[in-house]
């Protein structure tokens, strides 16, 4: 299948690679052209100077960029994806963005007889590199079924949540839950150290019970050793939590814990941790 991929960040770069390795004909676009050229050197395929050029003749166009303004620019801009997308094609937006921008783009795409799926991701850089991402999608059942077999190149699980925007709303739920889990784990590890417990033995005991989580299994040791130079950056998490908090202001949801944890991440940024992994919430406890 002829596909395009716009946005070769830490997620998009390996995802587009999986599409090419699966036998699809992939044309990539990246704002930094040198990165697109490097991708072609590694995987094959082709690259384009603009998103619209990349989308020309593509049956599916995947987008994975930074935020709402990036989505609007890359898809709706003068040389954006829609300027080159053919009627009957589908745009799949993997960006974590607002439900509002998803609905906006979907409406414009629909007017041009182009399908749209908002499909944010969970699993981080490691999930993208290992082809083990989880996808929460918003759109029609027909569009989802058409695109799902292609997304399976880099995803281990895909769920159609509901109409356009639902994927982004589900991703907000994901980030809300993670924020609370990481804060709880940070306080637990901090407490265990202050109580002079053997933390490794504590984790061995509680990780088999109700306290178990992905964060505990994959982050407790690096958290204990003050290692945060990897993973999902604090600045990205704050962007995501900001989206969730803005949505909550609209729908009336009370996100007391989320607002508090967001303020804790602001403290981590003040410690110089803008690019730290989200597990760095423990840093503000250990360094206080």
Task: Supply Rg.
Answer: 20 Å
Average pLDDT, rounded to a whole number, is: 97
Please identify the top-level CATH class of the largest domain.
Answer: Alpha Beta
Order of helices and strands: EHEHEHEHHEHEEHEHEHHHHHH
Please give the largest β-sheet.
6 strands, parallel
The CATH architecture of the largest domain can be given as: 3-Layer(aba) Sandwich
> Spans with pLDDT under 50 lasting ≥5 residues?
none
From the 3D structure, determine the CATH topology of the largest domain.
Rossmann fold
What's the count of strands? 9
Number of structural units classed as domains: 2
Which strands sit side by side, in order, in the main sheet? 3-2-1-4-5-6
Name the overall outline. globular
How many helices does DSSP assign?
14
Strand content: 5-15%
Helix content: 40-55%
Rounded to the nearest angstrom, the distance between the terminal CA atoms is 54 Å
Question: Can I get a quick summary?
Answer:
The chain has 288 residues and is of the alpha/beta class. The chain has helices at 12-21, 33-43, 51-55, 68-76, 81-84, 99-111, 124-129, 141-151, 166-194, 199-206, 214-224, 234-251, 256-270, 281-286, and strands at 2-6, 25-29, 46-47, 60-63, 90-93, 115-118, 121-122, 133-138, 155-162.
């Amino acid at each position: 299948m002829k596909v395009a991929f716009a946005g070769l960040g830490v997620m998009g770069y390996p995802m587009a690679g999986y599409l090419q390795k699966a036998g699809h004909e992939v044309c990539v676009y990246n704002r930094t052209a040198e990165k697109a050229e490097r991708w072609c050197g590694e995987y094959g395929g082709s690259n384009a100077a603009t998103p619209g050029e990349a989308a020309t003749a593509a049956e599916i166009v995947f987008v994975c960029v930074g935020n709402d303004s990036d989505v609007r620019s890359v898809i709706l801009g003068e040389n954006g994806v829609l300027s080159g997308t053919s009627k009957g094609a589908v745009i799949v937006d993997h960006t974590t963005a607002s439900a509002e921008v998803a609905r906006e783009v979907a409406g414009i795409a629909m007017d041009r007889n182009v399908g749209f799926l908002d499909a944010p991701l969970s699993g981080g850089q490691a999930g993208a590199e290992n082809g083990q991402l989880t996808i929460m999608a918003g759109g029609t059942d027909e569009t989802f079924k058409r695109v799902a077999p292609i997304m399976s190149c880099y995803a281990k699980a895909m769920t159609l949540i509901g109409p356009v925007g639902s994927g982004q709303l589900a991703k907000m739920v994901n980030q809300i839950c993670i924020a609370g889990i990481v804060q709880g784990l940070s306080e637990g590890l901090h407490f265990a150290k202050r109580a002079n417990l053997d933390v490794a033995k504590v984790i061995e005991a509680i990780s088999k019970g109700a306290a178990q989580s992905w964060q505990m299994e994959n982050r407790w040791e690096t958290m204990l050793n003050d290692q945060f130079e990897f993973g999902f950056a604090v600045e990205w998490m704050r962007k995501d939590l900001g989206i969730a908090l803005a949505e909550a202001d609209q729908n009336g949801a009370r996100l007391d814990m989320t607002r508090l944890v967001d303020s804790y991440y602001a403290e981590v940024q003040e410690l110089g941790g803008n690019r730290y992994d989200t597990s760095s919430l423990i840093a503000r406890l250990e360094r206080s």
